[in-house]
Amino acid sequence: MPSLPEAPGSTWARSYDYTARELVRPRSVDDVRDLVLREPGLRALGSRHSFTDLADTAGVLVSLEGFEEPPTMAGDVVRVPGGMRYGELAAWLQERGRALPNLASLPHISVAGAVATGTHGSGIGNGSLATSVTAVEIIDGQGDLVRLESGSPDFAGAVVGIGALGIVTHLDLRTSPTYQIAQTVHEGLTFADLREHVSEILGAAYSVSIFTRWADEPDGSVGRVWAKSRSTAPEIPGTVLASQPRHVVPGLDAAPCTEQLGLPGPWHERLPHFRLDFQPSVGAELQSEYLVPIERAQEAVDAVRSLADRVRPLLQVSEIRAVAADELWLSPAYGTDALALHFTWKADPGGVRELLPDLEQRLPAGSRPHWGKLFTTKDPGAEFPRWDDFKDLVRRFDPDRRFWNAWLDRVFG
């Protein structure tokens, strides 16, 4: 049986207070099915790492944290309960000599929630977290358990499903043998090098992040490069290696961040920026992110730089990454290798919402938002070739709109 109902609370950064009637933690697939058949309005709630009402509902929020079951391995595929956090899954895989190809900045996020929103790490050759999925199991709007495997007609539409098709109870993920990563921080990046060589810098190591505040720092630089390498640390022209650990936000204590200074270690202890047992990032913050076709990287960098005087007063830090193309219908990297422009804002909702329309207008054509973060784009579907196909999929999976909410109404109309 589900746990006793709870007050729904807020997102992890307290950027949004949920308005749902209650939060319930089912303990089994049968519990989830019973909830779907009984309740006219539900939404799956992951680890609360979205920044808006994406996961809210007037009815019942459903958290799968109550599923007390471990992952299971079959060959090189791991079957994972959707509510499990990536940091916990990664440690479990490492104990068995297995690994995932990539992780996001935060290991705190749930597998189902991260996959459903197209969340990603970095690396020109690395797809989003959703590209490791080989099967997904969903309780749909009729209360049926539907299993979709890679290659089936609806699979590519359902993986990045933003919670609109039902409640994802389990996912299968392809794994590889474990591997080592060494992380180095390179300081002194100039804007000229960022602008002219952004794609080359992002391809210099297995996973690369560029951190900037878009305006010149006192030393004349514009930012730092965090390189995560499977072999020799790269050389980033014009930069020097940091001599001590750094936080992604300049000036903050580096203790929450993963091991640096080139010391090799297991993949899951280096690919995220933050350690699982610490609060990630800043905490009191807002976030936005846009993925741009990588061939328009220089244009995108110039667009943000042109707004530096307005961006910097609102900004904690900005991160630039690369994401490999995929064929998942609502993935922001659908059909194109992408440059990801991430913004960690100060907790100033009014100021951020005033800036975002101008920022979005200046970004190159083909830019797509990260679904779990703040954006004001009026018609995101114009940039997704399978948008109408996804809406048809929603009608089939959820004909009574049990999983529909205000966020979907605004975005899909």
UniProtKB/TrEMBL annotation:
Assigned keywords, A-Z: Oxidoreductase
Cellular component, GO, one term: membrane
EC number: 1.1.3.41
FAD-binding PCMH-type domain span: 16-178
A Pfam family this chain is assigned to: ALO
Single GO molecular function: xylitol oxidase activity
InterPro entries linked to this entry: ALO_C, FAD-bd_PCMH, FAD-bd_PCMH-like_sf, FAD-bd_PCMH_sub1, FAD-bd_PCMH_sub2, FAD_lactone_oxidase-like, Oxid_FAD_bind_N, Vanillyl_alc_oxidase_C-sub2
PANTHER family noted in UniProt: D-ARABINONO-1,4-LACTONE OXIDASE (PTHR43762:SF1), L-GULONOLACTONE OXIDASE (PTHR43762)
Protein name: Xylitol oxidase
